[in-house]
Amino acid sequence: TKTSHSKIYSTESGITGGGFFKTHPLHFTKEQLEWIENIQLPKRLFLISATEFDDRYLYLHDDWRYRFSGNNLAILFSTGKYFCDLSPVSLKLLKYLTIAYINENSASVADKFAQFVATTFKQIEVI
C-alpha cells in the first residue's frame, strides 16, 4: 500500500494584510519571517542570456516551465517531489533565491539549484 504525503501550498495566500502564514517553520526567526513576507516576487523574469531558440521570459506561476539551452525545463514548486513538503515560507524564500541565482548565473541549471536548496531546507527542518 502506498501512502501519499504530498501537499500543495499556495505562496500567494496571506501575503497581503499581515498575518503572513498562520504556522511557520521553527527554523526562521520572527525577523526573518517578516523579511520573507516583504519579498515581492515578480510575475515574470527576463532571461538575459536567452537566444532566439529559448524562451525570453520565465513566467513565475506556481510551477515554472521554460525552454533554455535547447532543453525544456521545469521547476515544479507546487507538485514536484523536492518541493511539495516545504512550508509556504520556505517556498517563497526558495523562489526568491532561485530568481537571484538566475539573475547572477543562468537559467540552464536553475532547476538543479532549486532542488539542491529545497533538499537543504528539508535537512535543516529535520535538525
UniProtKB/TrEMBL annotation:
Natural source organism: Escherichia coli
Source taxon at top rank: Bacteria
Protein name: Site-specific integrase
